[in-house]
């Protein structure tokens, strides 16, 4: 059974020959570029390391590494496809974390300050993100709270794609389909309903997260109209993505909606069901009626209360399954939602176990989670979130060895 067949069986609740494994299929299942470079060194792979996600300093994972780790998924990220098809030498060479040479995408603008901090700058030279000396990644230099009033007239979500963008994603999807046996996970324009104003600050330049959450309660008609426009725009783009990729993708990411905190959701479940879920349902219905894709939603935190609404809306796959958050225990999730939604993640806790555990603790932790989630299909293994730069390489190796070893049990 090849990787594409393995993932297809798992996401259709059939028992594959082993549990599929993901690393880097999306920008929330990746690996920090320093850890990746060290991992390659352990493997004896001497190739340039490219940056896949500039903000998070995540590495682009090469096929040789995917094969060595038994990874079954490759990303088709509309935001990086042009860079993915370039040689590393066409990028911008820099040393990150003091000892790791990497290549950033062309036109990346980074300046280093006297105190050792880095700034990311836009085309006009203005800083929009910063990383302190010895930091792990960049953070936006803007507030997502503050009560600034949202002007709905400024909200103009992207509703089309250039010919160059479509050509690039078409070429990349064809290359991945014909030159690997991996399942292709597509990601492009997507929705973020709960944190809409925070995540779309380029469009709502005066908005803030707390103001948007207020609007969901107090200005429901306006909020619904904005979310409706949002879904219209995303569907318009997805039509173009599907034309460009054909049926080469198994899965498409429709939402990155970090609706949970460590202890609970950002909004009340009934408000989510009333205001947000109908828009998810309209988008999922379009995808299922017009493409072969499975719909994929990323939402960190304690999102237990929202899962029934996502299932009813037609969401097929949920990530990252933050098992350390409240009410997100593997046993509870599998018992209540197994066979109704695919769990893509939850394989290893990245807050405490992966960075701090011993090799034996990691193996037992992975074995337990795979035994729960992997029963009867409906599970793709990946760690809960990105692997950070301070995780011991031995722990990373132990996690993927355990995922492979226990995947057939």
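-> sequence recovered:
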């Amino acid at each position: 059974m090849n990787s594409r067949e393995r993932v297809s069986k798992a996401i259709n609740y059939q028992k594959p020959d082993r549990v599929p494994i993901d690393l880097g299929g999306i920008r929330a299942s990746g690996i920090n570029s320093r850890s990746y470079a060290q991992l390659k060194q352990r493997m004896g792979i001497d190739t340039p390391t490219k940056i896949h996600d500039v903000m998070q300093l995540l590495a682009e994972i090469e096929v040789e590494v995917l094969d060595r780790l038994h990874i079954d998924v490759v990303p088709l990220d509309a935001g990086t496809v042009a860079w993915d098809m370039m040689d590393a030498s066409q990028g911008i060479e820099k040393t990150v974390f003091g000892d790791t040479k990497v290549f950033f995408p062309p036109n990346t603008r980074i300046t280093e300050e006297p105190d050792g901090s880095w700034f990311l700058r836009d085309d006009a030279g203005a800083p929009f993100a910063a990383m302190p000396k010895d930091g792990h990644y960049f953070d936006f230099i803007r507030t997502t709270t503050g009560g600034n009033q949202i002007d709905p007239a400024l909200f103009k979500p992207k509703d089309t794609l250039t010919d160059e963008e479509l050509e690039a994603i078409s070429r990349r999807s064809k290359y991945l389909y014909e030159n690997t046996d991996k399942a292709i996970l597509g990601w492009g324009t997507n929705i973020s309903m709960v944190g809409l104003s925070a995540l779309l600050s380029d469009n709502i330049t005066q908005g803030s997260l707390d103001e948007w959450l207020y609007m969901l309660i107090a200005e429901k008609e306006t909020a619904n109209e904005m979310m409706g426009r949002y879904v219209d725009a995303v569907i318009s783009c997805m039509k173009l993505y599907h034309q460009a990729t054909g049926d080469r993708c198994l899965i498409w990411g429709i939402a990155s909606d970090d609706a949970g905190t460590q202890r609970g959701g950002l909004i009340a479940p009934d408000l989510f069901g009333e205001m947000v879920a109908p828009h998810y349902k309209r988008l999922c219905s379009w995808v299922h009626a017009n493409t072969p894709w499975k719909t994929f939603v990323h939402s960190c935190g304690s999102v237990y209360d929202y899962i029934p609404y996502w299932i009813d809306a037609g969401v097929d796959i949920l990530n990252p399954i933050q098992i350390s958050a409240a009410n997100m225990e593997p046993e509870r999730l599998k018992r209540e939602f197994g066979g109704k939604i695919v769990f893509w993640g939850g394989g290893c806790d990245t807050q405490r176990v992966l960075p701090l555990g011993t090799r034996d603790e990691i193996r037992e932790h992975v074995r337990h989670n795979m035994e729960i989630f992997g029963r009867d299909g409906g599970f793709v293994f990946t760690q809960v979130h990105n692997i950070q730069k301070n995780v011991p390489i031995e722990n990373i190796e132990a996690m993927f060895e355990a995922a492979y070893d226990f995947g057939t049990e």
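Residues 3-90+144-405 form a domain with the TIM Barrel fold (CATH 3.20.20.210).
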